[in-house]
């Protein structure tokens, strides 16, 4: 989706905005990877909660950090997924300038041009961005409905985002992005048999 808005000249050395194109792509992938790892961690924490629930008075590392008392599996899953997405994005944001500091402009142009030239990669990016948007929207709708069910006096967007928190919002977008990529893989290689 975003890739379609970038200009794509016939030659790599003419590629404009190479830093923006490549950085955006890498940060998008790190956000998705962090969300996927966070989701795996959240599923593990939810399984631990089911098999060994902590006691409310427990002060062990297990009860304080891994599976806090009175936590629901959904809350553990969303918190872990949102934290993983944020960690992936922040870690890559810090490493990106260090890694690419030695690159010349022509290297940036070549990589970003090849990225836009690869139609499969552009499709993956499109599905991932659409999935992230749908995931965030779906999370906001579910949270708004839940607030209304509990009788909250204010269910406007600001109140919904505040109740959801940054982890919940990032979890929705991250899971949506990962689901978008999985949907693309199912569509391209399942339904279409690998053909465009």
Detailed description of the structure:
The chain has 196 residues and is mainly α. It has two domains: 12-117, no CATH class; 118-196, no CATH class. 75% of the residues lie in helices and 0% in strands. The protein has helices spanning 18-51, 61-66, 73-100, 105-117, 119-149, 157-191. The longest helix has 35 residues, at 157-191. The protein is elongated and about 65 Å long. It starts with 17 loop residues before the first helix and ends in a 5-residue tail after the last helix. The mean pLDDT is 87.
Using only C-alpha atoms, the radius of gyration works out to 20 Å
Average pLDDT across residues? 87
Structural class: mainly alpha
Fraction of residues in helices?
Answer: over 70%
| H/E element order | HHHHHH
Principal-axis shape equals elongated
Main beta-sheet annotation: none
**How many individual domains?**
2
> Kindly, what is the distance between the CA atoms of the first and last residues, rounded to a whole number of angstroms?
17 Å
**Which parts are unreliable, with pLDDT below 50 for 5 consecutive residues or more?**
none
Number of alpha- plus pi-helical segments: 6
Which helices and strands, and how do they pair?
Layout: H1 18-51, H2 61-66, H3 73-100, H4 105-117, H5 119-149, H6 157-191
Helix pairs in contact: 1-3, 1-4, 1-6, 3-6, 5-6
List keywords for this structure.
elongated, mainly alpha, 2 domains, 196 residues
Question: In summary, what is this structure?
Answer:
With 196 residues, the chain is an all-alpha fold. Helices cover 75% and strands 0% of the residues.
């Amino acid at each position: 989706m975003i890739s379609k808005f970038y200009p794509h000249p016939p030659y790599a050395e003419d590629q404009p905005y190479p830093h923006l194109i490549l950085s955006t792509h890498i940060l998008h992938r790190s956000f998705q990877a962090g969300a996927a790892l966070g989701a795996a961690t959240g599923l593990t924490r939810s399984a631990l909660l089911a098999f060994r629930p902590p006691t409310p008075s427990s002060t062990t590392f297990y009860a304080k950090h891994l599976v806090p008392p009175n936590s629901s599996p959904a809350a553990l899953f969303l918190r872990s997924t949102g934290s993983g997405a944020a960690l992936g994005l922040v870690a890559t944001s810090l490493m990106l300038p260090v890694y690419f500091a030695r690159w010349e402009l022509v290297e940036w142009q070549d990589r970003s041009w090849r990225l836009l030239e690869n139609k499969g990669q552009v499709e993956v990016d499109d599905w991932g961005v659409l999935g992230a948007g749908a995931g965030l929207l779906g999370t906001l709708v579910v949270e708004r409905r839940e607030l209304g069910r509990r009788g909250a006096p204010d269910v406007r967007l600001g109140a919904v985002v505040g109740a959801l928190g940054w982890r919940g919002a990032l979890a929705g977008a991250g899971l949506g992005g990962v689901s978008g990529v999985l949907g693309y893989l199912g569509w391209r290689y399942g339904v279409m048999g690998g053909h465009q």
